[in-house]
Description:
The structure holds two protein chains of two kinds.
Chain A: H1 2-28, H2 33-38, H3 44-54, H4 60-72, H5 86-121, H6 126-140, H7 143-157, H8 173-207, H9 210-217, H10 222-250, H11 254-260, H12 265-274, H13 278-306
Helix pairs in contact in A: 1-13, 5-6, 5-8, 5-10, 5-13, 6-8, 7-8, 7-11, 8-10, 9-10, 10-13, 11-12, 12-13
Chain B: H1 2-20, E1 34-39, H2 54-60, E2 68-70, E3 76-78, E4 81-86, E5 92-97, H3 111-122, E6 141-148, E7 151-156, E8 189-195, E9 199-204, E10 217-222, H4 226-234, E11 240-241, H5 246-250, E12 256-262, E13 266-271, H6 276-279, H7 281-290, H8 293-301, E14 306-307, H9 332-341, E15 349-355, H10 359-373, E16 378-384, H11 386-395, E17 401-406, H12 433-444, H13 448-464, E18 469-473, E19 475-481, E20 484-485, E21 501-502
Parallel strand pairs in B: 1-10, 1-11, 15-16, 15-17
Antiparallel strand pairs in B: 2-3, 4-5, 5-7, 6-7, 8-9, 9-10, 11-19, 12-19, 13-17, 13-18, 14-18, 20-21
Amino acid sequence: MRYVGKKLIALLVTLAAISFVTFFAFTIIPGDAATNIMGMDATEEEIEALREAMGLNDNIFVRYGRWLLGVLRFDLGTSLQYSIGVSELIGGRLKATAGLAFESLLIILVLAVPLGLLSALKPNGALDNCITTLTQVGMAVPQFFLGIMLTYVLGVLLHVFRMGGYVSPGDNFGAYISFLFVPAITVAVPKLSMMTKYLRDCIVAEKRKDYVRTAKAKGNDAARVLSHHILKNALIPSLTFFAMIVADVFAGSIVCEQVFSIPGVGRLLIASISNRDFPVVSAIVLYTAALVVVTNTLADILYRAVDPRVN
Amino acid sequence: MKKFLFLVTLMSLSVLYGCSNATGKGGAGSDGGNVVVGITQDLDSLDPHVAVAAGTDEILFNIFEGLVKVDEYGNVNPAVAESYVLSDDAMKYTFTLRDNVLFHNGDAVKAEDVVYSLKRCAGFQDAYDPSVSVESAFSVISEIYSPDEKTVVIELNTANTELIYYLTCAIIPKGYDKQATDPIGTGPFKFSSYTPLKSFVMERFEDYWGTKPALQKVTFNIYANSDAALPELMAGNIDIMTALENDVAAQLKDNYNIEYANYNLVQALFLNNDFEPFKNPDVRKALCMAVDRDQINNMISDGHGSLIGSGVFPGLSAIFAKDLVNYYPYDPDAAKELLKNAGYADGFSFTITIPSSYTPHVHSGEVIVENLKKIGVTAKIELIEWSSWLTDVYQGRKYEATVIGLDANLAPGDILKRYRSTAKNNFINFTSEAFDTAYANGINAKTIDEKAVYYKECQKILTENAASVYIQDPAQITVVKKGLTGYTPYPVYVLDMSKIHYEK
Lengths: 311, 504
């Protein structure tokens, strides 16, 4: 329990540090929301008046303090560009990102374990070579290329998929799930490949260990040794790896969102940076950071639960 | 495990089923139907007085109207106003409001709404809103008031015959504070929904005072770029898309009609006249002769752009000085000679700063770099973000050269006013007393013919001094799905959806 408490404090400190650095970085880059909103033909006085009204002229610590107080009260502020509450803006887009993340995680989970196992059954056998080659290709192929190929084949040639056909889950949940399936494949393939390869290597490494020989000597058949002993141990290091993948997919895939025109968090982040829409950028950075830190912390805690050796 | 696999199979089946239902949409018939328009630029605001991006104006034109409204020939015609009178001394505009003009919320437009809207645009103290981009042309206004329910009067502090072109400023309900999220205007379409970076939807306004549009609903889908929209175009899910690159449009000619129009921009290699080599007019002239405008035109719009030789685009036909287009013919040898005489026999180097999001300007820059190599000048392209460009280049004037397109209001003098020595947005640091005088005469002239004389004089001064390397008004390439008609190019940034309809 003390361990969990310590982790939680570390988590909060990390988030505070990250949010401050974001704040600070934003004051260094040229241009601000006021110049951006007023456009080309505004006078310096007009821009100054808007800056003042938006509170951009205050000292960085004052602004950071104001923002932090808001966050502590669960108020992320209002988008300077869209005049919409930041929570509302991001909330709407999280639906897309989360759906995409869940589906790709599902694909990874369902396929990585059996593929890794099959591959490790006979290291350097035909099946292993085949799967390893595929994972190499899967890791190497750029996401945008895979996305474009999939849409070309499924959308343009076969007409079974509509590329910009994203529907909000509230409107039609079935269509939402089915649309996100193809982008989810795009997101999943490289990560699935890495996960499979990693798992395979872990299993192969475990297989050589003494306890496996002992288990076999005790009369267990190969399948039982694999499922009850090797897999259990091989899955532990994969847990951390999987946690990284979780954080990664939930942060939103900018490339995938661009290719499939999915209104997710990634595209919003890019647009908000160029609009100098500070409240939105801060909120998304905070979300992403929290995601990484929380999943890693969870993985650490889980690690302790499944592996008594870690102390 | 077995259960899991079963679930997955079930899911993929439902995926295939769901997808097969998702194809094909849109409407038919001459009255009604829906249209999907692809755009690549998100709206910068839904509040017409706050929005500054040309891409936003293009869409909001359908939702909002001013006292007057632009037509496809570049005229301004009465809209919310029924008629207007300009006093002989050009110091007082009197507008008579049209009866039965309704806002999209059903309220009738009253004189106080008009006064409020104009004051907000003009930045008058009692309607001051710092987020509004105040129209600088409104600085000539001294008073806006309504003597009675049907009349609005604008009094000026100096004679001005061009103000009418700015009175396209949107009329909005007085004191309505949700304009940025739920805009209300008087146009032929009313706002329906907006999802940032995804879509903007509008519907036909049934109580519109003028000719009602044929289309029932128009959805603008926002894509990251035209590459992202291409598969959607190939699958026929987009009906109209503007601002396409030529090679993209060419792939679509089986199902779409390709329309070429002008962007109504002055695209140029703008030179900072205060930067050392560019202080010398001969150096600027040399650059004008060294840049192959035809090559740029072919490169970015397959030769469909219109070459220019000065700071006005051809769409402003009344004042456009046609004779200046070929004032500097492409002649690298003569350019080299000029450079030599100016003391730059060995050439020099400079940086061209271009906003990275504007691909055509970036491509133009690349051609320019190659062109200049031939006269021994080394140019380097630096790509920066739009926000940085605004602050550093446009407002800060901390740059050597840039490639950009400048747009303008239809008011004849608007595109030229930045070259006045004292203009705040004179970002090329051009100074010429002769220009200032000619411009002032143009503004004060009463008739368009008189104005044309002075404004042509202005253009001549710009060209003779080689203020910058003027290139072209680039071609705006639009694809319109076969079966749809009524696409009408305007001499300003407008995508008029009220004229578009399905063929019978």
